[in-house]
Specification:
mainly alpha
Protein backbone atom coordinates (compact mmCIF):
# COMPACT_ATOMS: atom_id res chain seq x y z
CA UNK A 1 0.00 0.00 0.00
CA UNK A 2 2.83 2.42 0.80
CA UNK A 3 4.39 1.82 -2.63
CA UNK A 4 1.06 2.55 -4.32
CA UNK A 5 0.73 5.79 -2.37
CA UNK A 6 4.32 6.76 -3.24
CA UNK A 7 3.61 6.24 -6.94
CA UNK A 8 0.11 7.72 -6.89
CA UNK A 9 1.29 11.04 -5.43
CA UNK A 10 3.26 11.64 -8.63
CA UNK A 11 0.06 11.93 -10.70
CA UNK A 12 -1.37 15.04 -8.97
CA UNK A 13 2.12 16.58 -8.97
CA UNK A 14 2.38 16.17 -12.74
CA UNK A 15 -1.17 17.48 -13.24
CA UNK A 16 -0.34 20.54 -11.13
CA UNK A 17 2.81 21.07 -13.19
CA UNK A 18 0.80 20.92 -16.42
CA UNK A 19 -1.71 23.44 -15.06
CA UNK A 20 0.98 25.87 -13.87
CA UNK A 21 3.56 25.63 -16.66
CA UNK A 22 2.02 28.40 -18.80
CA UNK A 23 1.06 30.90 -16.07
CA UNK A 24 4.34 30.55 -14.12
CA UNK A 25 6.73 29.90 -17.03
CA UNK A 26 9.04 26.84 -16.91
CA UNK A 27 11.97 28.76 -15.38
CA UNK A 28 9.91 30.01 -12.44
CA UNK A 29 8.17 26.65 -12.03
CA UNK A 30 11.56 24.92 -11.88
CA UNK A 31 12.82 27.31 -9.20
CA UNK A 32 9.61 26.91 -7.16
CA UNK A 33 9.92 23.13 -7.42
CA UNK A 34 13.55 23.19 -6.30
CA UNK A 35 12.65 25.50 -3.38
CA UNK A 36 9.88 23.09 -2.36
CA UNK A 37 12.38 20.20 -2.55
CA UNK A 38 14.97 22.09 -0.48
CA UNK A 39 12.38 22.82 2.22
CA UNK A 40 11.16 19.21 2.39
CA UNK A 41 14.71 17.78 2.47
CA UNK A 42 15.65 20.21 5.27
CA UNK A 43 12.50 19.15 7.14
CA UNK A 44 13.40 15.47 6.70
CA UNK A 45 16.91 16.20 7.98
CA UNK A 46 15.47 17.81 11.10
CA UNK A 47 12.88 15.10 11.68
CA UNK A 48 15.27 12.17 11.23
CA UNK A 49 17.25 12.95 14.37
CA UNK A 50 14.18 13.07 16.61
CA UNK A 51 11.75 10.42 17.73
CA UNK A 52 9.10 11.22 15.13
CA UNK A 53 6.28 8.81 14.43
CA UNK A 54 6.64 6.67 11.33
CA UNK A 55 3.30 7.95 10.04
CA UNK A 56 4.42 11.58 10.15
CA UNK A 57 7.74 10.65 8.55
CA UNK A 58 5.87 8.81 5.79
CA UNK A 59 3.65 11.85 5.16
CA UNK A 60 6.70 14.10 4.84
CA UNK A 61 8.35 11.51 2.57
CA UNK A 62 5.22 11.49 0.36
CA UNK A 63 5.41 15.29 0.27
CA UNK A 64 9.06 14.94 -0.79
CA UNK A 65 7.98 12.66 -3.64
CA UNK A 66 5.37 15.22 -4.63
CA UNK A 67 7.99 17.99 -4.57
CA UNK A 68 10.30 16.00 -6.83
CA UNK A 69 7.58 15.35 -9.40
CA UNK A 70 6.21 18.89 -9.20
CA UNK A 71 8.08 21.22 -11.51
CA UNK A 72 11.64 19.99 -12.00
CA UNK A 73 10.75 16.59 -13.47
CA UNK A 74 8.94 18.26 -16.37
CA UNK A 75 10.99 21.41 -16.70
CA UNK A 76 14.36 19.68 -16.96
CA UNK A 77 13.08 18.15 -20.20
CA UNK A 78 11.20 21.22 -21.43
CA UNK A 79 13.75 23.97 -20.81
CA UNK A 80 16.62 22.59 -22.94
CA UNK A 81 14.29 22.30 -25.93
CA UNK A 82 13.17 25.91 -25.41
CA UNK A 83 16.44 27.76 -24.77
CA UNK A 84 18.87 26.45 -27.39
CA UNK A 85 18.91 27.73 -31.00
CA UNK A 86 17.36 25.40 -33.55
CA UNK A 87 20.63 24.71 -35.37
CA UNK A 88 22.27 23.16 -32.30
CA UNK A 89 19.21 22.22 -30.25
CA UNK A 90 19.41 18.43 -30.55
CA UNK A 91 23.09 18.33 -29.61
CA UNK A 92 22.56 20.64 -26.63
CA UNK A 93 19.51 18.70 -25.42
CA UNK A 94 21.58 15.52 -25.63
CA UNK A 95 24.43 17.09 -23.66
CA UNK A 96 21.97 18.38 -21.05
CA UNK A 97 20.41 14.93 -20.71
CA UNK A 98 23.84 13.32 -20.42
CA UNK A 99 24.84 15.64 -17.56
CA UNK A 100 21.55 14.83 -15.83
CA UNK A 101 22.38 11.14 -16.06
CA UNK A 102 25.89 11.77 -14.71
CA UNK A 103 24.38 13.57 -11.71
CA UNK A 104 21.95 10.72 -11.11
CA UNK A 105 24.73 8.13 -11.31
CA UNK A 106 26.90 10.12 -8.89
CA UNK A 107 24.02 10.41 -6.45
CA UNK A 108 23.16 6.71 -6.62
CA UNK A 109 26.74 5.57 -6.07
CA UNK A 110 28.07 8.27 -3.71
CA UNK A 111 25.22 8.45 -1.19
CA UNK A 112 25.63 4.83 -0.03
CA UNK A 113 29.37 5.41 0.37
CA UNK A 114 29.05 8.54 2.54
CA UNK A 115 25.77 7.83 4.37
CA UNK A 116 27.22 5.40 6.96
CA UNK A 117 29.89 7.94 7.89
CA UNK A 118 27.79 11.12 7.93
CA UNK A 119 24.28 9.83 8.67
CA UNK A 120 21.00 10.11 6.82
CA UNK A 121 20.23 13.57 8.25
CA UNK A 122 23.41 14.92 6.68
CA UNK A 123 22.45 13.28 3.37
CA UNK A 124 19.12 15.16 3.49
CA UNK A 125 21.00 18.40 4.25
CA UNK A 126 23.22 17.78 1.21
CA UNK A 127 20.12 17.13 -0.93
CA UNK A 128 18.60 20.40 0.30
CA UNK A 129 21.86 22.18 -0.55
CA UNK A 130 21.88 20.69 -4.05
CA UNK A 131 18.27 21.87 -4.56
CA UNK A 132 19.27 25.39 -3.44
CA UNK A 133 22.24 25.28 -5.81
CA UNK A 134 19.86 24.24 -8.60
CA UNK A 135 17.74 27.34 -7.89
CA UNK A 136 20.83 29.55 -8.26
CA UNK A 137 21.94 27.81 -11.47
CA UNK A 138 18.43 28.10 -12.93
CA UNK A 139 18.25 31.79 -12.02
CA UNK A 140 21.63 32.58 -13.57
CA UNK A 141 21.67 30.30 -16.61
CA UNK A 142 18.06 30.08 -17.84
CA UNK A 143 16.64 33.13 -19.64
CA UNK A 144 13.36 34.59 -18.45
CA UNK A 145 10.16 34.10 -20.42
CA UNK A 146 11.33 30.96 -22.22
CA UNK A 147 7.91 30.02 -23.60
CA UNK A 148 7.16 33.46 -25.02
CA UNK A 149 10.52 34.25 -26.60
CA UNK A 150 12.19 30.90 -27.09
CA UNK A 151 15.36 30.27 -29.07
CA UNK A 152 13.51 30.48 -32.38
CA UNK A 153 13.33 34.27 -32.03
CA UNK A 154 17.09 34.41 -32.60
CA UNK A 155 16.66 32.16 -35.62
CA UNK A 156 14.16 34.60 -37.17
CA UNK A 157 16.61 37.46 -36.73
CA UNK A 158 19.28 35.56 -38.61
CA UNK A 159 21.53 35.20 -35.57
CA UNK A 160 21.53 31.43 -35.65
CA UNK A 161 22.08 29.48 -38.85
CA UNK A 162 19.32 27.03 -39.63
CA UNK A 163 20.31 23.81 -41.29
CA UNK A 164 18.19 21.01 -42.62
CA UNK A 165 15.38 20.81 -45.14
CA UNK A 166 13.48 23.90 -46.23
CA UNK A 167 10.14 24.21 -44.42
CA UNK A 168 7.15 23.39 -46.62
CA UNK A 169 5.86 26.96 -46.44
CA UNK A 170 9.10 28.29 -47.95
CA UNK A 171 9.67 25.51 -50.51
CA UNK A 172 8.85 26.25 -54.16
CA UNK A 173 5.57 24.71 -55.26
CA UNK A 174 5.91 21.63 -57.44
CA UNK A 175 4.23 21.83 -60.81
CA UNK A 176 1.50 19.30 -61.46
CA UNK A 177 1.80 17.29 -64.69
CA UNK A 178 -0.39 18.37 -67.57
CA UNK A 179 -3.66 16.41 -67.79
CA UNK A 180 -2.60 14.77 -71.05
CA UNK A 181 0.86 13.80 -69.78
CA UNK A 182 1.32 10.12 -68.99
CA UNK A 183 2.70 9.78 -65.45
CA UNK A 184 2.89 6.00 -65.50
CA UNK A 185 0.84 5.79 -62.34
CA UNK A 186 -2.27 4.39 -63.93
CA UNK A 187 -0.88 1.71 -66.19
CA UNK A 188 -3.15 -0.61 -68.07
CA UNK A 189 -2.89 -4.01 -66.36
CA UNK A 190 -3.86 -5.85 -69.56
CA UNK A 191 -0.60 -4.96 -71.36
Amino acid sequence: VQNMICCAVCIPACVLTILLIKPLEPRTLQMVGFAFMAFIYALLALMWGYNVSRSLLFIVFITARFSIWFGPVATVFLLPSEIFPTAIRTSCVGISAAFGKVGAILGVFLIPVFEPAIGISAVFVICAGVALLAIAVTHVCIPEDTLASGADEADKLGEAPVSGPTPAAEAPAAEAPAPSEDTGLLEDSTR
